[in-house]
Structures are given as C-alpha cells and as structure tokens.
Amino acid sequence: MSAHEAWSLVCRLFKGGTPVFKAALSPAEVNACASLGPAIKPTAISQTFALCPYCQLRSGQIFGDGKGGQICQCPECGPTVLSAEDRAALMLDEGWLRSKLRMAMEIESRDGITDICDGVWRLGDARRAPVLLARSLTRLWSDPSIFDRVRVAGADIRVIAPKTREVRGNPFSVGVEWLPLEERFTLYGGGIAFIGSDTGQAPLIAAEPWAAYLGPFSSDFRWVTLDDWSHGPIRCTDGQAAIFRALWSFKGVKVEAERIMLKAGQESQKPNDLFKIKKENKGKPEYEGPLHAYRTLVKSTQRPGEYWMPCAATER
Ligand SMILES: [Zn+2]
After folding, report:
1. What is the 45 CA–ligand 1 centroid distance (Å)?
2. 63 CA to middle of ligand 1, Å?
3. Residue 243, exposed/middle/buried by CB under 10 A (0-12, 13-18, 19+)?
4. Are 219 and 205 in contact (CB under 8 A)?
5. Strands (E), the chain
6. Which of 52, 76, 89, 115 could bond to 19 as cystine, CB 3.0-4.6 Å?
7. Residue 201 pLDDT > 50, yes or no?
8. Could you give phi then psi for residue 192, rounded to 5 degrees?
9. How many angstroms separate the alpha carbon of residue 31 from the centre of ligand 1?
10. From the CA of 15, how far away is ligand 1's center (Å)?
C-alpha cells in the first residue's frame, strides 16, 4: 500500500462526491482506507438497496428474511443473504480534505472556508491570492462568474480540481491557474503536501520532492531528510527554508544572527524564531519536524549570538 495509491483513492472519492460500498473497493483500496485514518468515515448508502454480495455489480432491493436477517434481491443473481458488512459504505471526510489542503497551500487560518456553490469552495488566500477547490472543472466552465466573485486585484486565482480526461494544459484563461489534485498534491505525514510549491520552479522531482540533494536538504531547502525522525521527510515553510538556505551558503562558518536574517530575507531577529511552535501545535509532527531539523543541524553560541550549520561545511 503506497501513499500514491491512498492519495489516488482520496482523489477518486472526492471527484465522485458520493459514498461507495466497501465491497466494491479492491483489497488495496480497503487497505488504503485503513491507512487514511480520519480522512475516511463509515456511512450508510441506502436503507432500501445494497450492492449484490454475489456479483458485486448490480444493486438489489433489500428485504427482510423473516428471521431478523436481510436478503438482497439482485435482478441478475436472485436473492442472496445480506450481512451488515455487505452494506458497509465509506465516504471521504471532505472537511478533512479541505482543511489539509488549506495547510498544504499555507492559507492563514483566520479567513474561513466559503461554500461558493455546489461543489466549489473558496479555501482562503495563499499569499494574498485566492484558492478555490472544485469537484469538477466543468462546474467552473459552466459558470465563469464564480471567478468574478473571488477575484482580487493583482493576484491569480488558483483552482484545485481533479483531472478530467479531456483536459490537457491549462483549461482557463490568463489569471486562473489549475492545480490538478492528483498531480500537485500528495499525502504526507498525516496531512497533504503541495508539490513544486516554489513559483516559477517546474515540479522536476514531483515524484519525490523531498529527495535529499544538498546534504539532508532537498534542492529548494523545503524538505529535510533525517534518519532519526520517524515521520518521513520534514517539510519546512518558506521562511524556515530561507533560513536553512542562508546557513548553507555560509558553509559551516560561524555567523551572527543579523547577517543570516538579512541573507534569508526574514524580519525576525534570530534564526530559531522561525521554528518556534505555538502551544496549540505542540506535539504535531508537521510543526515539531522543522524544529527537530533545526536543533539537529544548527549550532549556536549565546554571546555573541553566532550560528552555523556543520553539515554545510562537509558537503561541498
Ligand atoms: Zn448479483
């Protein structure tokens, strides 16, 4: 069971937008559901129809067997005994999907999610640019006024939507960018990661954006791979990546905080300011990971406050 298969299932369930019978899923997909935890929730599809347990192709009407049990009357196979397991259905917790996509896009939490119309949500603003989530591109084509309702001056609209067979390239006019759900996002550390998030940089290593390239860092310093961190590659924010990039450029030499912050283009006073964890995020791997990386890789002295990264000296 790979993360890729599990992510494909999430995308498929979101695209469909309806519950599915557990019996209609492949064994790999059932495993994927288990690995997805809170993203998938059990549900009931119908009190009157069930997927035929025998052929698993047709739906049959549900009847009582007169002894407290149930029978599925399949139009092809005839009556078949129905167990509770046969009627079990699953659905994607779309609230989970929306909140994790917001985190992946680094959307500030103070602006909430807006229900724009059936199957279209405004997730919020990422770096002042609106981000939409749509169940289908067709919904947006059929009503382009949706864009007028979210557009802001000087920023492109980004649309997260599943792929459709007929679309290649960008299906929208200038000012609207499509991010295919299946390709630009992936499961990561109990959440969702945005692949190739640095603007202007092609997602060259889209399959494994975290591949260590410069010491423990990915080529864009947004991912850190450390053996003693059990949650997989550590994903950094833009600011944290800028700190690591700056420290790397000093090749392991001790440098005062001010020079590092200037080089990183960050307004905080000290490099470690960007790694502090708010009380409500304590213990969450996505926040603890970068701090762990900082503590492992960066050395400092108190007075004068100097910082250096030994791994940058050895890797040339
Ligand atoms: Zn049947």
Report:
1. 18
2. 15
3. buried
4. yes
5. 20-21, 40-43, 49-51, 59-64, 70-74, 78-82, 89-92, 114-117, 120-126, 129-134, 157-161, 176-180, 185-188, 191-194, 223-224, 234-235, 255-256, 299-301, 306-308
6. 89
7. no
8. -125, 140
9. 24
10. 26
- pLDDT of 211 reads 64
Q: How far is the CA of 79 from the centre of ligand 1 (A)?
A: 8
Q: Please, what is the average pLDDT of the chain?
A: 86
User: Amino acid letter at 263?
Assistant: K
Q: Both tokens of residue 82?
A: 């129905």
Tokens of 215: 């010491």
The alpha carbon of 73 and the centre of ligand 1 are apart by a number of angstroms equal to 8
Q: Is the pLDDT of residue 4 over 60?
A: yes
CA 243, distance to chain mean position in Å, is 24
Compute the distance from residue 42 Cα to the ligand 1 centre, in Å: 23
Cα of 65 vs centre of ligand 1, distance in Å, is: 17
61 CA → ligand 1 middle, Å: 11
Cβ neighbors of 68 (< 8 A, separation 6 or more) are none
Q: Is the peptide bond before 209 cis (omega within 30 degrees of 0)?
A: no
Each residue of 227-261: pLDDT tens digit? 888 888 899 999 999 999 999 999 899 999 999 99
* Parallel, antiparallel or unpaired: strands 191-194 and 185-188: antiparallel
What is the distance in A from the centroid of ligand 1 to the CA of 83?
A: 14
Query: Ligand 1 centroid to 5 CA: how many Å?
Result: 28
Ligand 1 centroid from CA 72, angstroms? 9
- Using CA atoms, how far apart are residues 156 and 105, in angstroms rounded to an integer? 14
Instruction: Judge whether 91 and 13 are in contact, CB under 8 Å.
Output: yes
> Rounded to an integer, what distance in angstroms lies between the CA atom of residue 141 and that of residue 154?
22
Dihedral sign (CA 284, 93, 107, 5): positive
pTM of the predicted model over 0.70: no
Residue 190 exposed, middle or buried by CB count within 10 Å (0-12, 13-18, 19+): middle
How far away, in angstroms, is 56 Cα from ligand 1 center?
6
